[in-house]
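User: structure tokens for this one?
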Amino acid sequence: MTTGVKVVLDEARKLATPSKAEDVKINSVVKDILAKITKEITKQKLNAKVVVGGSVAKGTWLPGISDIDFFLVFDYDDFSDRSAEISNFAEKVLKKVFGNLQRLHGSRDYFAVKHENYSLEFVPVLNISNGQQARNITDYSPLHVKYVAKNTKIKDDARLAKQFMKAAGVYGAESYVNGFSGHVIEILSIYYGGFTQLLKHALEWGGKEFIDVERHYRNKDEAFKSINKSKLIGPLVVIDPIESDRNAAAALSFEKLKTFKLNAKKFLANPSLEFFREKIVTLKNLEAGKKGRVMIVFEVKTPKGKQDIIGAKMRGLFEKLQKNFAGEEFTIVEKGWLFNSVTRFWFYFGNKPLSAKTLHFGPPINLAKEHTAKFKKVWKSHKISIKNNKYVVELKRKYVKPQEFAKTLAKEYKLKLICE
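Assistant:
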């Protein structure tokens, strides 16, 4: 490792490592919750226990954490034949401790609670020692945590990788992100033995890169026969160390992988702390990025609700806006979106307006007469010509500037519009 990279990474670790005060606060909250729930479990005479999960248990959480995961672990011998009921047992315990809580539906129902500015999730699971004992996919979760937690040497590198990917906008497996999950980042950090090694190897990844940390399979072909084909669509296949038939990186999109590799290449060529700083998107920042282009920004107050659900809705709206611009033949040269209390969508276009007229193509001239006749009837008031062996008419465009069309979109989708 060169001196320049080492200096940058030393500073980056400070960004990726929680402060002593935050660490103390998290541990205090976790300790308090564990004590209260343990007391209630004992009171209800359940053969179960509560443990912290997720990145807090693994020691890979980033500063500013607002989510803490817990497992309510039920004894296998006692509950394996009635595993479908453990969510109900968990709910009785949690209601006594917190009062109000939200029951969420998944492969097995789990629970969400707001507590001291933290969003807590409680997942009921069976206490299994191997995958064969699992009655539900969630039963594997504590084993995932234990796998990463025992690899203590990579904690700092996993945090660096998470911070790097967070700054690049590729961190998160939620449907509105389609990036790298924390679990995948941890697996990759373990597999390659560190942060810089991960970046270097990532530049060599080809199409459908195959990574099997625990060597569950002899080769890629054998693995692909065992994994659901719908989970092999993406660009990266990371065999889960615990669940051999699971691609842990199934959520990753080609776009997010491309962004990650581009950032990795730039960082290795010219190391800078900026690759670890999250980009704050303000109107001032967006204005500075105009560079002689047309800038269009839409804003809307973000609806309340579960983050992944609302995020998916906002992403859907972003994609609709893109399709609408493409439908009017406007070429987007740069785009992006971000949501918190306010969701902001931004687009940049070239300064040159579109031509005043556009061509509307009809059927091929050698198509059956009934089809060509219909086109001629619809456009009989226009001059019909032939281009590329197709009938075509020339139409006047309704919009020649993206700013004009943006006003229509803002009205249709009830968005605040900012044009520059």
